[in-house]
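Rotation project, supervised by the postdoc (A.L.). Task for the rotation student: set up a whole-complex structure prediction and record inputs and outputs verbatim in this book. Inputs entered:
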Amino acid sequence: MGRFIVRRIAGMIFVLFAISVIVFLIFNVIPNSEPAQRMAGKNATPQLVAAIKKDWGFEDPLPQQYLTTMKKIFTGELISYSNQLNVNEQIKKGLPATFSLSIGAAVIWMFFGVIFGYLSAVRAGGLTDRLLTVVAIVGISMPVFVLAAVFLKYLAFDTGIFPAGGYVKLTEEPIEWAYHLILPWTTLAIIYVGFYSRVLRSNMLDAMGGDYVRTARAKGLTERQVMRRHVLRNSLIPIVTLFGLDFGAVVFGGAILTEAIFSLNGVGDYAYQSTVNLDLPPIMAVTLFGAFFVVLFNALVDIAYAYLDPRVRLGESAQ
Amino acid sequence: MDGVESIDGAPAGRSPWRLALARLLQNRVALAFLGLFVLIVVFCLAAPLWSTHVAETGPNDTHTLEKVTVDGEKRDVVSPDGQPIGPVWLKAGGKFFLGADGRLGRDEMVRLMYGGRTSLFISLAAALVTTLLSIVLGLMAGYYRGWIDAVIARGLDIIWAFPVVLLGIALGTALAVGGLQIGPISISGTSIWIPTLIIGVVYVPYMARPLRGEVLALREKEFVEAAVAQGAGPLRVMFGELLPNLWSTIIVFFALNIANNMLLESALSFLGAGVQAPNSSWGTMISTGFELIQSAPLLTILPGAMILLTVLSLNVFADGLRDALDPKSRVRLEVEAHSGLIEPEGPAV
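Outputs recorded:
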């Protein structure tokens, strides 16, 4: 186990370094216009561009530039030249909203994904099963921001059932917090719930043919006990892996778009506003931290997974 | 079908492609959705016809202060308080069939058709970019193995670590300002080739990784050994022996890739990091339409519905294609999930 963790962390550090190099290349080196001009934003004065050029050391050799850039991002010196706000502070401010949205949505889609997947596997070919197939394929095909916009228009603006966007702090008003997040949660969850239940369904159908299922039946367990204790439990493992892979991408993918529609003032909304204004420093930081988060999260999931399932770490060392 | 011709009473063999086609032709759902996709493509290709002969206006022509005759009655294209005219269907002789698009008073129907051309073009061209890069990288990694494979696989892992939307935004904003200049090739920042290339590159790991896995497995088969023994060089083995065995996977991935590209293009354009003015796509139409979501929700819903229908038709058709090309594919998802070889294709964005 120790060796697995060490190897996994070493691999992770390499990937983190490579990611930081790629982000640096995208923003500072791509052969087109002057990088200082791009950093400065839309309405930059020549003086500002010259100051940025000096500050970021755009005339230094590339490795030196890389170090300057990383120092700026990680010590929290990075500021947006369009509104003079500190980028890291803005990101920190947005984190509660972003994680409230993503974690809440994830809980909902996992919960309903497991229920629907279970029901459709137990009654394969039935109505739930067919409905689920439709929900899953529409979910994969739906642009999340269109669904969000439709919800916002018809369930918030027109009928007033739900608040029209905005974020309320959990620590201040927990009920309002949940009330404001119901629509964004539902939007994100609908996109994923069908796909997850379909994966669970096929895992369960696969597991039903296992020897241990026959043994469980042979020793006299009821059908319900066989399904819940043996089939379902074993089928959940791949779902957890899939979740580990998806979650990071959801936080910095679907969540950005959902936040933009519901103006949740999270990291995604910040990235959206910066994109609209072509304000590069915030996008640079969000991209770097976003990719870091995904890598760290995946490593954690892998380690937890190896701890729970010895086959994983044995399989890894055999490669 | 002329697959079963008997020579001396014995049925002739049918090629796997013919068998797959026969299976596909039996899948009514897949065919219906292929039909839907073709309809959408025809709709978008007909844009110049509708634009010149029916609507008599271009996608970027503004009509802010003009009036249009609806049922003999003159109406403002854009009301004094900035509200665009809603759908008038054929009451104005085809003009403003779906209304105007906002303060600028552009014809929504014409924009929907032209926007679809942009969206479809980007999705298709990016899918070609992804497929070509993935084939080359997958074949090289799987054939040469060793350090070449290590470099390619690592590189793909690193790109794969970025959430696609985020990487798209980063590249989109960095390139939107100054465009791209590599040697003699110079692409302006507002060109639709910028989002095309970005989307094409971002999805490479999603296709190249599974292809590499397949090539690694095929590499061990006897027919490769036989080809090498006959003196076939690396190129001959890669493109003559290995590639033909990958086509069925590539075709399915290609169809799914177009669908995912369209979703990513719309997301990036909605965020402002995709298609740039004066070009417009369904994604940019949603981003301008959303400003009027309260008073004119159709401006968001129409392009949104077009994206949904296009992506849905491609996803369902790709599913049918996979069933037809690989009849054993019903068990595929489980096998993949257990072995971890191929990431199941979940929602893209």
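Student's summary: Chain A touches chain B through 70 residues (CB under 8 Å).
Supervisor addendum: The first helix of chain A runs from residue 2 to 29.
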